[in-house]
């Protein structure tokens, strides 16, 4: 089974869905890189009995390490340190030096922002944050909250618990110190390399792939294969120990042969393929978006260094903006309507001309929920990509909510770009 | 304690963080609306022993209902139905009529996309999806996978388990049928109304709020108060039974008095406040963004019906685009540099003029990780909002990653808009 870990994410705001959890995925990936398999991520609210239940469940499932995030603040609902101390058999003690360090941080923060608060009440919050389970290792605060490494007391056994703050930047900043702590190093001493491979297909039905995997089952020993269908992309991920590398290579060869028409990547994501192609081919790009309203250009710019190839984009939501800012001819708008292949082409050409870019992208459509007609129902989207080597266009009727239609349109535009720049499976 | 539920999200792609879970939060909010408190969300991979462990943990914590998402596909790693059937004491049986209905759906899907697959292998996948725990209620497929309602067999007791597919659109489409199923109605029969209130502060330290809450502790009986600091916004959420409404109203009054300078909402989100203000005041808006590259305009357009007030935006990443498309004077760029308050103002005015909008927003900055200088380090961002009633501007040095800098800039721009349109706490 190898070395295994569990993650406990605390916070009613995460449990109730008001805030998306970013710590669970981040920790899972870091643990994988350390050769540790994650058994489960448990999200609980700020209630001591629920947190205790989650810690006991993970201990019972035999993990070597538990990482918690959140519940280290000064408010009464922040109780992770107390509950972890209790579960690990280590009662809380005030660490006076830590108290001074936290007080200094809080004071600096408040004076910088010009805030005032009742000093006694603030001191009570600071004291709470300086309560440490006896024998635990303190991880120095990145924000105001210190982290903790809490091994089980005496002979009671069970996983080492690493307690980290909830804000992602603080948690991430504290991770190296957590990994370096003695009890964590010991818990992970047996962790072996865990490899991961990814194959991406565009336009293959999951049932079809299931048949292929069943057919070749015999050759897949030692691989954990999982498949995930998302926005039309079928992602096949294998996780394996180094000795199963030949089985992995065999699977990739089988997929490359059977799905030559849809396999577009044996690793990089769609976004990486497009960005690398633009950079490697020395091309610049600009967009003119209507229904996706800036989502495509925002996604193209996500990548650091993208200013070398992304010149910009125009979100031309209003018809007047399509005409005046992108230069879509008035008569094209009048004859075919704003949602038409002709306008998508004019937007792509306009973006290219206005920004002086090598590649232009145009997207126009009806994201809904309103605005649909019998002729052009909600979900109708026209996309066009124009570059030095030619033009790619697609017209589709997408299903789903406003958000889904916008996201799927962006994915489709990226596949059009991929095909224009790199060939391979059509969009 | 009331009626409680647990959620199990399955899928190695979610557990490893490759895909963000959207089902847990969605289900948690729907359950709350039904008066059900969620005790925990557990994410596990596609391994039978981990899924079994999660189901037993939740059953042991005394929940009345468990909802699972994912693991209903035709591939070998889809094993939710089998594990749930086993835990509930209900062995799987083939449902031949369901098999026919699933086969018809798969056939239609494949013919529509022009895909072919080995018929025998496809049939095996279909048969797998038509295996139903004895005595379970089948929820008709929205995609290809049927859902299930599986009560515990005989006298064994424990929660009713609702098994739903992983794709969010399928899960959401199936939810009304799940709620209407007899065993679910029985499990939720005792659920009482669970109210929720939200107060939002902009620029208050969590330690300060903690002191206030401690001071007024006596008057907060019956309220579950949680606080969450996110991107500078301190969100205070209370959950309570109807009889605790006076305690809730008291808390809101206390906060309104003590935090008059930072309280900007007793309900709506920042995005809702800005959108409603634009709509109610009959104003249109346009943006010119550099480092945020379309994120602000994409967020403004997220809301359905936003075409009534959002005219569009220009992502002017390159200097030439700032000049030619937004009309930033060449000499302003030369004298002050692209990242300057002067250029932020020129971008806001340019967006307003080019789109003919009532309100213009300009953002320019250095998101990093490269591009910083001693004078203008990474995180330097200048923002400006120009409207009929005046101008708001801010220059900040934000901390964090490229993504964090971009997101915080968008939040700050929205607060500038809020203050320009509605007054209240400054941005």
What does it look like?
- The structure is a homodimer.
- Chain A has about 425 residues and is an alpha/beta fold.
- Chain A folds into three domains: about 5-185, Molybdenum Cofactor Biosythetic Enzyme, Chain A (3-Layer(aba) Sandwich); about 195-265, Alpha-Beta Plaits (2-Layer Sandwich), CATH 3.30.70; about 270-420, CinA-like (Maf protein, Alpha-Beta Complex), CATH 3.90.950.20.
- In chain A, about 40% of the residues lie in helices and about 25% in strands.
- Chain A is built from 16 helices and 17 strands.
- In chain A, the strands form four sheets. Chain A has a six-stranded mixed sheet, with helices on both faces. In chain A, strands 14-13-15-16-17 form a five-stranded mixed sheet. Chain A has a four-stranded antiparallel sheet with strand order 10-11-9-12, with helices on one face.
- In chain A, β6 and β7 form a beta hairpin.
- The longest helix of chain A is centred in the C-terminal third of the chain and has 21 residues, at about 400-420.
- Chain A is globular.
- Chains A and B meet through α1, α2, β2, α3 and α5 of A and α1, α2, β2, α3 and α5 of B.
- β14 of chain A pairs antiparallel with β14 (about 310-315) of chain B, so a sheet runs across the interface.
- Chains A, B: This is CinA-like protein.
- Chains A, B: Belongs to the CinA family.
């Amino acid at each position: 089974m190898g070395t295994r870990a569990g993650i406990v994410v605390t916070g009613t705001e995460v449990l109730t869905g008001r805030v998306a959890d970013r710590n669970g995925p981040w920790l899972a990936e870091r643990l994988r890189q350390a050769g540790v398999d994650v058994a489960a991520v448990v999200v609980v609210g700020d209630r001591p009995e629920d947190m205790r239940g989650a810690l006991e469940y993970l201990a019972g499932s035999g993990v070597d390490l538990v990482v918690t995030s959140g519940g280290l603040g000064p408010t009464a609902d922040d109780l992770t340190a107390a509950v972890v101390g209790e579960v690990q058999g280590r009662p809380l003690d005030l660490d006076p030096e830590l108290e001074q360090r936290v007080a200094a941080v809080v004071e600096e923060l408040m004076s910088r922002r010009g805030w005032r608060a009742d000093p006694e009440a603030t001191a009570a919050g600071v004291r709470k944050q300086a309560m440490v389970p006896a024998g635990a290792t303190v991880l120095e605060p990145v924000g105001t909250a210190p982290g903790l490494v809490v091994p089980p007391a005496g002979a009671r056994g069970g996983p080492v618990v690493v307690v980290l703050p909830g804000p992602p930047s603080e948690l991430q900043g504290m991770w190296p110190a957590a990994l370096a702590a003695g009890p964590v190093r010991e818990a992970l001493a047996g962790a072996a390399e865990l490899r991961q491979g990814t194959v991406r297909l565009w336009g293959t039905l999951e049932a079809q792939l299931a048949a292929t995997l069943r057919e070749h089952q015999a050759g897949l020993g030692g691989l954990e294969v999982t498949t995930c269908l998302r926005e039309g992309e079928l992602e096949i991920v294998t996780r394996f120990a180094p000795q199963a590398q030949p089985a992995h290579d065999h699977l990739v060869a089988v997929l490359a042969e059977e799905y030559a028409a849809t396999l577009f990547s044996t690793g990089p994501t769609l976004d990486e393929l497009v960005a690398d192609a633009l950079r490697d081919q020395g091309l610049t790009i600009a967009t003119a978006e209507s229904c996706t309203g800036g989502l495509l250009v925002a996604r193209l710019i996500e990548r650091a260094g993208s200013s070398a190839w992304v010149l910009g984009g125009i979100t031309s939501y209003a018809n007047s903006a399509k005409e005046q800012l992108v230069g879509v001819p008035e008569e094209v708008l009048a004859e075919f309507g704003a949602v038409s292949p002709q306008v998508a082409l004019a937007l792509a050409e306009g973006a290219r001309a206005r920004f002086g870019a090598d590649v232009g992208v145009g997207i126009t459509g009806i994201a809904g929920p309103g605005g649909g007609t019998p002729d052009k129902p909600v979900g109708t989207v026209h996309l066009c990509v124009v570059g030095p080597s030619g033009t790619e266009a697609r017209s589709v009727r997408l299903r789903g909510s406003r958000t889904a239609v916008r996201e799927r349109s962006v994915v489709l535009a990226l596949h059009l770009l991929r095909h224009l720049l790199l060939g391979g499976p059509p969009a």
